[in-house]
Each structure stands twice: as C-alpha cells, then as structure tokens.
Amino acid sequence: MRAAGAINAATFERLAEAIKPGVTTAELDDIAARFIRQNNAICSFWHYNGYPGHICTSVNGQVVHGIPSKKVELREGDIVSVDIGVFYRGYHSDSAKTFPVGKISTEAETLIRVTEESFYEGLKMARMGNRLQDIGAAIQNHVEQNGFSVVRSLVGHGVGSELHEDPEVPNFGTAGRGARLLPGMTLAIEPMVNQGTYHVNTLADQWTVVTADGKLSAHYEHTILVRDGEAEILTRC
Ligand code: MF3
Ligand code: CO
Questions:
Q1: Looking at 44-116, which runs of residues are DSSP E strands?
Q2: Given 3.40.50.300, 2.160.20.60, 3.90.230.10, 2.60.120.330, which CATH number is that of 2-233?
Q3: Which atom of ligand 1 lies nearest, measured to the CA of 55?
Q4: Which of 23, 41, 84, 164 holds its CA 20 to 30 A away from the CA of 47?
C-alpha cells in the first residue's frame, strides 16, 4: 500500500504542473492515466461500478465524482478537486486534493486551507486506543468553527485489497463513540467541505455530486496507516 501510495502522490505532482487555465479535465484524466500506467499500476476508479473516468475531477460546486470531460475547460478563478485511486500489486491507495486554477478568491483559498487543516485534525485522532468517531468529531469541529459545513451523505472508508472496505469513516460524529482503532488498520480519511449547506445532490449522469446551493466545495484525502502513536500517511512520495 505504501508503494501504491507513492505512485498516487507522484501522480498529484505531475498533475499540479498541468492544472492551469485552458486545460480540460479530460486532459488531466489522460495525463494521470498515462502516468499511472507508466508506473505499472492501474487506476482504481476506472470502471469501478461502471465509472467512466480514470480519476475524478470536480469543479467549483461539484463535491466529488466529477467525470473528466473534453467540454470542461478550467478557467482562472476555478477550484478543482482531483481524486485519484492507484492499484498496485494487489492493493489500493486513495487520495484527493483541491487545486486553485490561477488566481482564486480569498474565500475559495480559505475553504481549501480549512479543508486540508480539518484532515490533519482528524489524522491526529487516528491512533491506537482512540475510537472511530474521534476522527470525524475533530474534522467537524474544525470545519464548523471556520463557518463551513461537512458533507454527511459521503464518508471516508477502509482501504486495502478493495478500494472501499469497512469501516465507514464519517467526517462528523461524537468523540468517544464508534469502533476502537487498532494498529495496522488502513483508512481513507476524506473530508468534503462546503461553503454553504452540507446538503448535496447527484446529477443525471449518476455520478457527479454537487452542492445543493451551488456554492463551492473542497476535498482532501489521504490513505493512512493507524499505529500505536502517530498515524503514517501512505499517499506520500
Ligand atoms: N475516492 C472516491 C471515494 O472514495 C472513489 C471514487 S470511485 C469512482 O469515494 F468510481 F467514483 F471513481
Ligand atoms: Co476515498
């Protein structure tokens, strides 16, 4: 999983150079797919439950599972959430990050920053002896203190030989509740944070999840390893 995670992280580095005004999300999909293949790995999302892309690219008010398209050209001021799954030698890694396209508004910058920070607040709680909802409670607390909201209907998850495994890892909850965390558990912690309401809808394409009020949303995800002490982030170079 560490090896799958390293390829995942390197794919993000490759894409970061490509994300600029004028690029289409289909071009980003293509770059990621080629890079992952060159590393002898497979895109976890490709044909997952019929998903038609290699990665997910969700622009502005799209929360997650945006399908890359030749018709979607990124413009200055947009934000784009990129979600990548890498399958390598029998194991998956799953990671996501929201990128600014050129110069963005201060509000959008704050949303991206708070989303990343909330992941790290959750990460601190992901250690042997703590309980599952300690993670979500820490995320929710940080997000709501900053005036944003946490999506409820989509959650993080266990990850391993399958992309989605038990347990569900909500980004909200009550500290002290849920299953006990044990060393060796590998989890995808992935806060999805909205500027306005936490309510979301799914578009007619059956995949793209959008904010109910059309306001911005950001996403940040790593695959992590629970240990006795600080967790290890596996989706790093
Ligand atoms: N990273 C996404 C998640 O955990 C997986 C997307 S699956 C896809 O929800 F099929 F939409 F690609
Ligand atoms: Co995930």
A1: 56-59, 62-64, 79-88, 91-100
A2: 3.90.230.10
A3: 12
A4: 23
